[in-house]
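Hey team,

Sharing the Diacylglycerol kinase family protein run so nobody has to redo it. Sequence (119 residues) first:
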Amino acid sequence: MKYSLKKQIRSFGYAWKGIRQCVGKEQNLSFHLITTAVVIAAGFFFGITRTEWIVIILCIGVVIAAELFNTAIEKLVDLVSPERHPIAGQVKDIAAGAVLVCAVAAAIIGIIIFLPYLS
Ligand SMILES: Nc1ncnc2c1ncn2[C@@H]1O[C@H](COP(=O)(O)OP(=O)(O)OP(=O)(O)O)[C@@H](O)[C@H]1O
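Structure output:
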């Protein structure tokens, strides 16, 4: 298959459309975005190191990506199982659990990075 720059740019457009569809509509994503803004502001305020920025950016990326995957799974479940079904509920809960694992890990990393600047 021939590589097409036009097709590639169009794919980025679809991905951006997917992100925009969630922003402001998904309560959990809004929470993660507000937290992201606070963490970035704190990073500049405390003048964290280059390595600390890399870790923070990685954490932010992982949590937001997990939340987007979770939203996609929720929508897919609603599409294939509009009626209540125990497995549909389990799928949603497991996906939400994956986000929680990422968010808790990111919060612990945030504490490890920022605590020394506060003491
Ligand atoms: N199709 C379903 N079958 C069984 N349980 C479900 C289903 N959809 C959601 N649930 C359960 O409800 C929880 C909340 O799901 P979700 O956030 O999608 O809200 P909802 O119950 O579908 O209602 P709403 O979309 O109006 O908020 C899920 O984590 C799951 O435990």
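The domain at 11-118 is CATH 1.10.287.3610 (Helix Hairpins).

Ping me if you want the raw files.
A.
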